[in-house]
Amino acid sequence: MGKFLTDFKEFALKGNVIDMAVGVIVGGAFGKIVASLVNDIIMPVISLCTGGSGYKNLKYVITEGHPATADGVAAVEEVAINYGIFIQNIVDFFIIALSIFVALRFAMKLKKKEAEPAPEPAPEPTKEEVLLTEIRDLLKQDVNK
Question: pTM for this one?
Answer without folding.
Answer: 0.50
